[in-house]
Design a protein that fits this description.
By secondary structure, the chain is an alpha/beta fold. The chain contains nine helices and seven strands; from the N terminus they run αβαβαβαβαβαβαααβ. The protein has a seven-stranded parallel β-sheet with strand order 3-2-1-4-5-6-7, sandwiched between helices.
């Protein structure tokens, strides 16, 4: 009988993990966890100084944490980042597409109706979330095709699972991310290698720089009306903590999920399954 070792089943040590949006609130927590578990981590962010800050917080002294400036909407920037990662870390075993977010210019309100969302706001949010994910998957996915194996993890959203008010462009983009995840999973397995897996995580409501003051009143620190509705519809009764994503991410990256591809895993405290009754 085969002997199963829990440590080996979920082991990510020695893996080379590239993370777009790696200096964000969720991305930086993932980067720290991966590095502390023995992975080599390339932190990619539009602002290199932000990536360097996260690398400093990790405190790596062995060259296994690599901060890089990178624009996910610029293929040449992505190619340069890939070349640096291959040169310094040796491979790209995992890509985490964490770059994304919403913007007030694409958020409906009393001041801004859906019909008046400006083209620049619409394009910014849609491109950052969906086009950036596709570009990064093209550039880093090709490297995985060349090596014959790899894992791509995309970041979807509850906005792709349930209809949320105020965020039409973000919702459409994240729904695209979920659909693209499923398409790419089939494409990679059938056309290239079943050892290239593509999955996604759909976080519930986490306090980030983009949504904090939609959910928490800046002056009082109390929940906003929107924040109260979210908590009331989350069976676990709280917002997510970035650390809540780590276990799911490690499962999807590690050998423990070798037969899992094309899934979008909600990490949401039960929000997506609660009817409100």
């Amino acid at each position: 009988m085969e002997r199963y070792e829990l440590k080996n089943l979920f082991d990510i040590s020695g893996m080379s993990i590239a993370m777009t949006g790696g200096a964000g609130i969720l991305g930086s927590e993932m980067a720290k966890a991966f590095a502390h578990l023995g992975a080599k981590v390339a932190i990619l962010d539009l602002h290199k100084e932000s990536a360097e800050r996260v690398a400093k917080e990790i405190g790596d002294n062995e060259g296994n944490v690599l901060p890089l400036g990178c624009d996910v909407l610029n293929k040449e920037s992505l190619k340069k980042a890939l070349d640096v990662i291959l040169g310094k870390l040796g491979s790209v075993d995992v890509l985490v597409n964490c770059a994304g977010g919403n913007n007030p210019r694409a958020t409906t309100s009393k001041e801004l109706s859906f019909f008046d969302i400006p083209e620049d706001g619409m394009k910014f949010v849609f491109d950052l979330n969906l086009v950036g994910t596709i570009y990064s998957s093209q550039i880093f996915g090709k490297a995985m095709v060349d090596s014959g194996s790899g894992v791509i993890i995309n970041i979807s959203s509850m906005a792709a699972v349930r209809v949320l008010t105020k965020v039409p462009i973000y919702s459409a983009a994240k729904a695209g991310v979920s659909n693209f995840t499923q398409w790419l999973a089939v494409y990679m397995a059938q056309e290239y290698s079943p050892k290239i897996r593509v999955n996604a995580v759909a976080p519930g409501f986490f306090l980030t720089n983009q949504n904090r003051f939609l959910l928490i009143d800046e002056k009082t620190g109390n929940l906003t009306e929107r924040g109260k509705k979210i908590i009331d519809h989350t069976p676990m009764g709280r917002f997510g903590d970035p650390k809540d994503l780590i276990g799911t991410m490690i499962w999807l990256i590690s050998p423990a999920s070798n037969f899992v591809t094309g899934v979008v895993v909600p990490v949401d405290g039960g929000f997506s399954v609660f009817s409100g009754v």
